Every structure is written in C-alpha cells, then in structure tokens.
Model the fold of this input.
Amino acid sequence: MTSGIELVRPSALCPTVPYAYAAVTDPGRMVFTAGACPLDADGATVAVGDVAGQARQVMENLATALEAAGAGLEHVLKTTVYVATSERADLLAAWQVVRDAFGRHDAPSTLVGVTVLGHADQLVEVEAVAVRDSWQEPGPPRDGDTVAE
Done:
C-alpha cells in the first residue's frame, strides 16, 4: 500500500465497479476522479442511445464522487470528456450538458470522440482533476465513503 493516497468510494454510487471513484493525495488537496459513467446505483447504464441523457447522469455521478472526496464541480481544474461517436453533433450534445453543469466555472477541458467505452451501451464518460481545501480537523470522514490505503 502506498501511504498518502486516499481512495474514495461513495456509498451513493454503484458498489460493484472494480475501482475507486476518486483518489486524494497528500497533503490532501488534489483529487483525481475515475471516469464518471452513466450508471445508476445498481450499475445499469441509463439513457441508452441518448448522449445528452447519459451526460446528465455522468455529471450527477461526477458531482457525487467529488463531494465524497471533499470537493465540488467548482473545484475542478480540468476535465476530459469522452463520447463514443464519430458525429460532431453528439460531441456537442454531450459538451453542452457538461458546460451547463459547470455554470460559470469554465475549467479547461478536452472533448474527445472515441470508438467505444467500457460499459454496455455507454456513450459518455467524464474524468476530472480537482483541488480541495484540506480536510477540517480532526481529519477526513470515516463514514464508509472513504478508504485510506
């Protein structure tokens, strides 16, 4: 185990994925998320065939992962948005949802069309790097949403 790495697994997100939803590093400010996927709490892909609908679920899941790591969308430094498409209109549909979720916080982002994503029927995925304020004393929560390694 590497000390100084805190893996975050929010109880509100699907528990069967084989990875943490975010990681925080010493001194407790940088947050790196896994790609947020359009999955419901049971791990089923939502809004099959609907790029914008999946993007909305992705952004809800990203916000949940960030919140569990002590950050929010307003703390994001950079995102990468993946859309399984070769159509520019699909890229723009996903991008509009992502932009709307961030509001005035226009952090740098990369928008990429890809061939395929990891889950069945998945069209959209967003990963983020954020910075948070350090945990307030006495330290990070130990409520089952974080796992120190």
Summary: The two ends are 6 Å apart (CA to CA). Residues 14 and 75 are 23 Å apart (CA to CA).
